[in-house]
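I hope you will forgive my troubling you with a question about protein structure. Here, with my thanks, is the record as I have it:
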Amino acid sequence: MRASDQDARSVRPRVGGFARGVGATMIEKISRQHLQLDEAAICTVGLYAQGGFNKLFTIDSNTGRWLMRVALPVDPYRKTASEVSTMCFVRRNTSIPVPTVLGHDASNDNDLRFEWILMEYMPGSVLERAWRTISLSRKENLVKKLAQSQAELFHDANRFRTIGNIVQAGPGSYEVGSIVSMTFFWGDRGARDTNRGPFRNSYQWLTARLNLALEDQDKILANTDAEEEIDDAQAAKKLAERLIAFLPNIFRSDEVESTMLFHDDLHEKNILVDQSGNITAVLDWECVSFFPLWMACQPPALLNGAVRLEEPLRKDYGPYDPEVDEDDAEYNEGLSSSYWTDLMTYERWQLRGLFLSEMELLEPAWLVEYRRGERKRDFELATLHCGSELTMKKVEAWLDAHEKGERYSLRSSLYAQKVYNLETFQGRARF
């Protein structure tokens, strides 16, 4: 496994103190104990990667390599405990390659003074970097493997009937507990006495999220005299109130729903591949929740993006320009970064269709849930984006149309505005 914490979901509070506070000596001591390394054995600790609320360290010995993830207590105990349980659940019940957990402490009552997970080091390269070197046919095989993984998680035996995060109930048994999501612990939300579930159904889950949005705006209104901030907060509060009022038109408060595990941040940074494009690991299982089928039955984030029907041609793009292009000239093969961006958009769209076709073969019922869940997923997107200045107008227009009995895709509207990929927290998280 590798760190994927430097993505848009990163939380920034207390990072400086966190970076200075983690001691290699304590990491070595804990690692020796759990790896059963004697005092004479080599044990070297190195910083591997750093994110907003996690640091990842390599543990190198003459017998192998491991990783330790050390975390800030952004959601004390729950985040680490649910991440470990989720990884163990996936390893036990599916063929998805996930690191083995060798030891963990979900509290900070230890020598390190932080929560930590010691895990297997997984081979492979990050798909994001390897994407350009993999042929389209091998990408198709990769997507078929992702479809197989989704089908396995869809099986009845792997489902529950509540929304939240999995925890271990006993040896080899699991249950769904309170939700671990950035929606619920971002900023000062983690310190609030708020309903974290587990939620009986979508109505409860979305109501809790919209109530948090209302609390955010009330807090702004109580602490600012700036006219612009007041106007924005009032507009966001009104929109959240309208969504709460519209909620019963889409969701029933007494509904009993089946839920399944959905890795809703499964993009190219969280997949490792070998030189042939075979998946060697699926990473970053923190904040991965059990969601209702309408939410969980959708293509992985890797295949999200705008629609592009025509393949871009190299001859239509200019040469690499160090002033504006990302990455280096060699990686870009001397071409403008725009070519590679457009090519990935085209390939993603083609592969998205393949994924859906494969799901229809593997689990026809999954595709049924995907198709009939579009309106519900749009409402969830509206909930996510109702407090953002960038997207509020789009959400308002969508809600206006639906209140009049007209329907169109909010997702498509947000893509057209080129802001949908800002679903950070904005972000989803796992939202």
In short: The radius of gyration is 22 Å.
